[in-house]
Amino acid sequence: MVEVFTAVEVADVRFPTSRELDGSDAMNPEPDYSATYVTVRTSAGAEGFGLAFTVGRGNEVQTAAVEALAPLVVGRPVAETLADLGGLSARLTGDGQLRWLGPHKGVIHMAAGAVLNAVWDLYARREGKPVWALLADMTPEQLVALVDFRYLTDALTPDEALAILRAAEPGRAERRRELLAHGYPAYTTTPGWLGYTDEKLVRLAEEAVAEGFGQIKLKVGTDLAADVRRLRLARAAVGPGVRIGVDANQAWGVSQAIDWMAELAPYDPYWIEEPTSPDDVLGHAAIRRAVAPVRVATGEHCQNQVVFKQLLQAAAIDILQLDAARVAGVNENVAILLLAAKFGVPVCPHAGGVGLCEMVQHLAMFDYVAVSGSTEDRVIEYVDHLHQHFTDPVRLRAGRYLAPTAPGLSAEMHPASVADHRYPDGPVWSNPA
Amino acid sequence: MVEVFTAVEVADVRFPTSRELDGSDAMNPEPDYSATYVTVRTSAGAEGFGLAFTVGRGNEVQTAAVEALAPLVVGRPVAETLADLGGLSARLTGDGQLRWLGPHKGVIHMAAGAVLNAVWDLYARREGKPVWALLADMTPEQLVALVDFRYLTDALTPDEALAILRAAEPGRAERRRELLAHGYPAYTTTPGWLGYTDEKLVRLAEEAVAEGFGQIKLKVGTDLAADVRRLRLARAAVGPGVRIGVDANQAWGVSQAIDWMAELAPYDPYWIEEPTSPDDVLGHAAIRRAVAPVRVATGEHCQNQVVFKQLLQAAAIDILQLDAARVAGVNENVAILLLAAKFGVPVCPHAGGVGLCEMVQHLAMFDYVAVSGSTEDRVIEYVDHLHQHFTDPVRLRAGRYLAPTAPGLSAEMHPASVADHRYPDGPVWSNPA
């Protein structure tokens, strides 16, 4: 009997984070961090786990989108699928009817990412490797076959991608040892949520430095005077040697972003993140020209590789913040890492949310071992909540992510966490005592 | 008792168009044209109708997105809402949790459009006017208040928008008479579906010219030799004086688009529509520079006003093809018309689908009366199917849309059509004889 996929199951899981204002920012004042949690199963009893991240209401729409994609996976032979994950990605993102809902953006694209990532998790478990190592063991040809080049070749051809990967081959083994010994640098967003008091901000900023972080991040964009005050307090708390990113979460228009950042500049912000609409390539380019030497960073809401391509072509960003769950999974993120390497822009992944730290660390570590070959000016975001719900949570030491060693993508949640937080019937929601 | 909104109902309505290959193109080979059909109701018994268009599978995801937005409308006072439709648009597109699913793109944004358009329909019925006339009777200040300028001001400020609208005020009455007397020019896509035989293409192209159309359109992008043959046949059938648009429906990368169009150029295509990813502003700009004097057109998949803004800023398009149901309803399309007027780019709306002709004619006619003041090089797409399902179907005469006179947005369907085509339980689907 040929092993086939037998199920793509999905659960609507929500955490009531709005009760504490964890995660509050200029555009998401009261998020309930949520996961559209996907389990793929095979006829041989194998499992894989992936998820899409949302902030509460609408997680049921995301769930419906995963259900719409399930028939494209169920019934397919497993070995054949795992041998051609580029083909699976094309099928999930190119269906002649579902494609209309995007294409390649929003709910349907995040659903494709969740399903693809669950299949990658299953694949890595089967190979007995964490996903970062699975990727780092692939040949340049295998990696290039994961990518959909249809809309990329004006910026990156398959041959150029091969050349990037081949150039990084000689150092793979040494960097892998380095990674396993010392981990990958992180920064923390924990101190800077907009809903926190000044006292909490200062205390958490001091704690972050004491823990070894070389960079923290503050949310800004709602009240200029408060932003100036909070950034001044944070700068005083961490001293001149620690980088402080600021993050507007899309609150501004182009000229407003430029004016606002002029007021914050005296406190030496390292980057401005999401200054305006994530769709505005030309707007980011204009802001970057105006706010230098402050760097411009974006990516968590960047819908797909075509927009990342243009952000790089237009010299619109200094830092590329890929997200494990916004685009179509590992495949599209391999493409984005290759684009960033081609243009020499460092990748500092977005994380936090639910399981985003767990998943995205694999991509950054793969980038270090087999693509860019560098951790210079590269940091993975870290936020210290909700990790306890995962079976293989991230491990940090002295401000660095330690490389995961368990097989898979680290996206599996404890069954009890899923059951407790299932919306609307789990006890956290049906009986919020 | 203050009148309030009491319901936002939604129906999953699908037409089995794939059985005849009507609507077949390079990326949508077998569409089942579908509507996420929205009815808003008030405590005084008033109704309004709107819809999102999809091509089959996934219409249930679109339906779930409308349901997610319903609580933002139900319970609100009607008069207050109609007096501030800019506020309603901001609420539907800016919800602190639902916004994450876009923002401003894909399923959640089309859902906002469907709900907003249903409220506009209700408003216009109440005022006893078709929507085009309702808009054309508003003051420049009222029209500007409909628009969300947050991400637009680097290209269009509220003052510039006011100036455009004021400049068009003197001619409104005369153009309205002209419109009511002579209608608005159309072009037809009916001959050119990819699934049609050469004989059917030639016959339908000849019929289109005989009916008075000055422009037809052909689908291209799957097979170069076939495209050359079909365009040659179409050119021979219509003669040199009739414009032929070609439409690749996103099939190509940038250099592929340029190469393919070089082969079609001898047959004098008027425009190339959707040559590449709808997200690729810079790609469209590169293609436009290379294929001139063939014009570049796009818009039916353009997700929001921020992308239209950039297409105009980058001089990436010659023709802007707004769509009534892709963006957030009448409000965002007013913004897009103002952007197009600012940059002097003609708007030739995308239509076809289910009810898109019915709705979008109102926007083009409003543009003529009160924004651009011109029909030069402007045509509304026309496709001759599914109109019989609407209570106020479009009327064409001699290749022109006649202005609708019934109150509303013309989006109401016959109850029997909805009942017959409801998915999956309507008789067309449950018993497809």
From TrEMBL, chains A, B:
UniProt xrefs under InterPro entries: Enolase-like_C_sf (IPR036849), Enolase-like_N (IPR029017), Enolase_C-like (IPR029065), L-fuconate_dehydratase (IPR034610), Mandel_Rmase/mucon_lact_enz_CS (IPR018110), Mandelate_racemase_C (IPR013342), Mandelate_racemase_N_dom (IPR013341), RHMD-like (IPR046945)
Cofactors named for this entry: Mg(2+)
Pfam families: MR_MLE_C, MR_MLE_N
UniProt entry tagged with the keyword Lyase: yes
E.C. designation(s): 4.2.1.68
Class of this enzyme: lyase
SUPFAM superfamilies tied to this protein: Enolase C-terminal domain-like, Enolase N-terminal domain-like
Entry keyword set: Lyase, Magnesium, Metal-binding
Chemical reaction(s) catalysed: L-fuconate = 2-dehydro-3-deoxy-L-fuconate + H2O
Gene3D superfamilies hit by this protein: Enolase-like C-terminal domain, Enolase-like, N-terminal domain
Transmembrane segments: none
Domain Mandelate racemase/muconate lactonizing enzyme C-terminal, residue spans: 198-294
PANTHER family: ENOLASE SUPERFAMILY, MANDELATE RACEMASE, MITOCHONDRIAL ENOLASE SUPERFAMILY MEMBER 1
Name of the protein described by the UniProt record: L-fuconate dehydratase
Organism of derivation: Streptomyces chisholmiae
